[in-house]
Amino acid sequence: MIKFKIRQLLLVFVALVGVFTIPLWIENLYVIHLSIMVCLNVVFAISLALILKMGNLSLGHAAYIGAGAYTSSMLAVKVGLPFWLTFYIAGIASGLIAFFIGRITLGLRGIYFTITTFGLTEVFRSIWIAFRGTFGGPSGIMNIPPPPGIETKVQFYYLALIFMLISFFVFYRLSKSSFGLLCDGLRFNWLLEECVGVDTSRMKTIVFVIACTFAGLGGSILAHYLGHISPSIFTMFLSTEIIVYCAIGGLGSILGGAAGAVFMTVLGEMLFGVGFFRSLIFGIFLIGVIIILPGGLASINWNMIGRLMQKRRIA
Q1: Apex 154 CA angle, 149 and 159, nearest 5
Q2: pTM (2 decimals)?
Q3: Tens digit of pLDDT for each residue in 21-41?
Q4: Confidence of residue 215 (pLDDT cuts 50, 70, 90)
Q5: Is 310 part of a structural domain of the chain?
Q6: How many structural domains does the chain have?
Q7: Calculated CA dihedral for residues 108, 112, 118, 123, nearest 10 degrees
């Protein structure tokens, strides 16, 4: 047991050293850009994974990412507030929207909740398109300033990386605590939790607000990194891609969601040149993973694989 813990800590240390030294041994700016998008997609995936952990399939995650991005962009461009203030306000705004909408929609179960969240994404997108004076209409908001002191892609990478590590630590600790056990109870038997005195409605709202707050914070960083946002970014397709990340990694698993986001973001960039066939390949790959690994990448027993490889070497 002690050896296993030491091995885990060693792997974590090696992984941290690896991700922090990427700009030192890779000078290709495209790879740095890809690394930034990986970090942000990991945040989006693990925040959705917490919602999936309690048994709710949300197709509206892009709406909360967009809410954070638009809030931060408007405050920076039109009001002139500094990034760090707009960053926190963006998270608060997404959390408040999630609170009021969650109080209404989280009472729905199954497909009814999913359809409602899909409609929510389209409502938000329609608002961003309709109000040109406020949100810029179809063209969105341009000339979004970068955070002060962060001018290069390498500096942005470290900002996204630190935010990803903080987010992962928060969600991973939540999933492994009694709070995470209550989330699992909501997924497997919410009626039993109500019978033993758990306020399931309040619990679901707390989970939803936490997840959407981090999604909004990630949306703020995304907006200031791209320098331009439009409603075409925050559509149902973005929500679907994040669900695919979580499904590949393992529904309801924080570690699996992060692994799925890393793997599928890199794979998506590799398939960028195939055009519309990219979605087809994504679908085929998702079906294959569901058939071969129903629990996703998180269900792989790495210890068993290691023992089999060791036996093979001995043989």
Answers
A1: 60
A2: 0.89
A3: 888 888 888 889 999 999 999
A4: very high
A5: yes
A6: 1
A7: -70
Asked whether residue 221 is domain-assigned, the answer is yes
Q: What are phi and psi of 120, to 5 degrees?
A: -60, -40
CA 166 centroid distance within chain:
13
Residue 10 lies in a domain: no
The span from the CA of 104 to the CA of 282, in Å, is 33
Give pLDDT tens digits for 261-286.
998 888 888 777 666 677 777 778 77
Mean pLDDT value of segment 168-181: 87
Amino acid at the residue 183: C
Which helix (H) or strand (E) segment is 130 a member of?
A: helix 111-130
Q: Which residues contact 199 (CB under 8 A, 6 or more apart)?
A: none
Distance from C-alpha of 178 to C-alpha of 112, rounded to nearest angstrom: 28
What the block records as the tokens of 200 is 């399931």
Here the CATH number for the domain that contains residue 109 is 1.10.3470
Q: Could you tell me the residue range of the domain that residue 36 belongs to?
A: 28-314
Position 21 in a domain: no
Contact criterion met (CB below 8 Å) for 27 and 33? no
- Tell me if residue 59 falls in helix, strand or coil: coil
